[in-house]
TrEMBL record:
Family label: Belongs to the glutathione peroxidase family.
Protein name according to UniProt: Glutathione peroxidase
Pfam families cross-referenced by the UniProt entry: GSHPx
CDD domains: GSH_Peroxidase (cd00340)
Active-site residues, as the UniProt record annotates them: 37
Keywords assigned: Oxidoreductase, Peroxidase
Top-level taxon: Bacteria
Any one GO MF annotation of this record: peroxidase activity
PROSITE patterns for this protein: GLUTATHIONE_PEROXID_1 (PS00460), GLUTATHIONE_PEROXID_2 (PS00763), GLUTATHIONE_PEROXID_3 (PS51355), THIOREDOXIN_2 (PS51352)
Biological process, per Gene Ontology: cellular response to oxidative stress
Annotated ranges, domain Thioredoxin: 1-160
Length: 160
């Protein structure tokens, strides 16, 4: 079994491979995002958290996903521009991924088994599901899409 997120590499929104080991010793919040979702305004709070705690070791990683209500139909460039223009997103974004089903990104397979959802569920239920990862690269908590980013600030602080 995979021990941490550091065992994975992912592709950023510019098409470059990024080993997650680059984020070693940081607290990481991983979020599956969408541009046309009722939760899309959470980008604003995610960016606020990133700005507030980046210097203390927080990094937020956004993974656009089109699996829920087809709410992320754009290509990588369109998604990137949308996030930057509408929400000033400066945290790292990655290429569009699948978080459920046979083509699940391996990172998400690890996250879902490490930090299960309600009643032990592994499936990601909707856009803006958040996984909090400690400085050792272990997924420790999953937050529902309805949980606003600022509501998990205390959990982030405990790990920082």
């Amino acid at each position: 079994m995979t021990a941490s997120i550091y065992d994975f590499s992912v592709t950023n929104i510019q098409g470059q491979t990024v080993p997650l080991a680059e984020y070693k010793d940081r607290v990481v919040l991983i979020v599956n995002t969408a541009s046309k979702c009722g939760f899309t305004p959470q980008y604003k709070e995610l960016e606020q958290l990133y700005q507030k705690y980046q210097a203390q070791g927080l990094v937020i990683l956004g993974f656009p996903c089109n699996q829920f209500g087809a709410q992320e139909q754009g290509d990588n460039e369109t998604i990137s521009q949308f996030c930057e223009l509408n929400f000033g997103v400066s945290f790292p974004l990655f290429e569009k991924v699948e978080v459920n089903g046979p083509n699940t990104l391996p990172l998400y397979r690890y996250l879902k088994t490490s930090a299960k959802g309600l009643l032990g569920s592994e499936k990601v239920k909707w856009n803006f599901t958040k996984f909090l990862v400690n400085r050792q690269g272990e997924a420790v908590t999953r937050f529902a899409p309805t949980t606003k980013p600022m509501a998990i600030e205390a959990d982030i602080l405990k790990l920082l």
